[in-house]
Amino acid sequence: MGYRKVYRTVDEQTTKKMVKMLQRHGIMAYGKSEGAGEILQITTGIPYQGRVVYVKEEQAEEAKKRIADWEKKGEFPEPLRTQSHTPKARIAALIWVIIIVVMGILFNIGFSMFR
Questions:
Q1: Euclidean distance between CA atoms 63 and 52, whole angstroms
Q2: pTM of the entire predicted model
Q3: Count of C-beta atoms within a 10 Å radius of residue 15
Q4: What are 43-66's pLDDT values in tens digits?
């Protein structure tokens, strides 16, 4: 008797709304944030998981049917299938990594000069 993932999204509000609606229909559900931070995702290649809704295993099929119905009605956005980072986010993360490395080198040079 465990829990199973039934829905993924990047939006926290959607996750909360999904959990509340499932609970109103008698399905034990909870939301959880998964995945690494933005810089770690981009620099190490760890995939972004987003926010996930879990339900009890024996209620998973019922939950999936209800979620599919709600999606058809347009109450929720399409579930997260794949998540890729925009070029802008990749460039921003790369710039921060470069800034941190340059600052570390400058600190080492300054520290060794006054030694």
A1: 13
A2: 0.55
A3: 23
A4: 555 555 678 889 999 999 999 999
